[in-house]
Write a structure and sequence with these properties.
seven-stranded mixed sheet; mainly beta; 44% strand; four-stranded antiparallel sheet; globular
Length: 121
């Protein structure tokens, strides 16, 4: 079953967005779930991950501004993004079944199509 992201858009700096990703069947299995970003001309970066126990891991670039969470009952993964900056612009994707500690994209097996976030004034 495909993953599906939502919640992207165009916003001004210092505002907030919450992304959601439907992850049917993956929350109860205890897989690692993650959020990733790929900016123009950049490699995909692992921003945040959450494991089956709810333990989270963040990239330094988003630590303290972004928060990953999941709703096991609804099979939804969230990314709350606060104090957005222009550098946060990019395609945001969710993925499952990878390395929660390293957040390396190549370790994740299943991906959504992505949702675009643009931060500009």
């Amino acid at each position: 079953v495909p993953l599906m992201e939502s919640g992207g858009g165009s916003v001004e700096p210092n505002t907030s967005l919450r992304l959601a990703c439907k992850v049917p069947g993956y929350t109860y299995k205890g897989y690692c779930l993650g959020w990733f970003r790929q900016g123009p001309g950049e490699e995909r970066e692992g921003l945040a991950s959450i494991d089956g126990d709810g333990d989270t891991n963040y990239a330094d670039s988003v630590m303290g501004r972004f928060a990953i969470s999941k709703d096991n009952a609804k099979d939804i993964l969230y990314l709350q993004m606060n104090n957005l900056k222009a550098d946060d612009s990019g395609m945001y994707s969710c993925a499952v079944h990878g390395n929660c500690y390293t957040r390396q994209p190549e370790t994740f097996n299943y991906w959504g199509q992505g949702t675009q976030v643009t931060v500009s004034s």
